[in-house]
Design brief:
This protein is an all-alpha fold and about 40 residues long. The chain contains two helices and no strands. The termini are far apart.
């Protein structure tokens, strides 16, 4: 279901599951998770 939700979000440009991002996590989100530093103040 996560794959389908991610792909649908990318197609329509809306956050359907309320996780705060459209589609899968980007490189910034992965970096923030790994370093525990918020780079883009989100």
């Amino acid at each position: 279901m996560n794959y389908l939700t991610r792909k649908l979000e990318e197609k329509i440009g809306l956050d359907l599951n309320g996780d705060g991002r459209i589609g899968g996590p980007g490189i910034t989100a992965k970096l923030e998770k790994a370093t525990h530093i918020d780079f883009n103040r989100d």
